[in-house]
Amino acid sequence: xxxxxxxxxxxxxxxxxxxxxxxxxxxxxxxxxxxxxxxxxxxxxxxxxxxxxxxxxxxxxxxxxxxxxxxxxxxxxxxxxxxxxxxxxxxxxxxxxxxxxxxxxxxxxxxxxxxxxxxxxxxxxxxxxxxxxxxxxxxxxxxxxxxxxxxxxx
Length: 154
Fold this sequence. Notes:
alpha+beta; two-stranded antiparallel sheet; 4 helices; 23% helix
């Protein structure tokens, strides 16, 4: 290792140790104001499941974290968007996505919708699921409301 490489490595390590280059996960699934319609057509609300994930979120088979583009992070674009997902009862796959409330940044909304299109639930349980996705910039894990969960990294 030459001197230039060593200096660069020390600078990167120092920045990482101070948290200057590190960033915690940015996409979170918010359980607050979440709701779902079961296979029988009955609507359930997250308020009935305080301090824990509601059953429709436990029934997720596949969940993909949204991208958080660098240019959006560089401009400090953050926010929460809410979606309604329509599911195929036979497969549990997402068949339709409706944006109920925007972050105010179309790129963040589109990134969340693209990831949600890949989600899947246990078949035969849920027809519709409503929930929010939170985009936040943080060097540490933020203090989230009960029922929220960090989305899986790819």
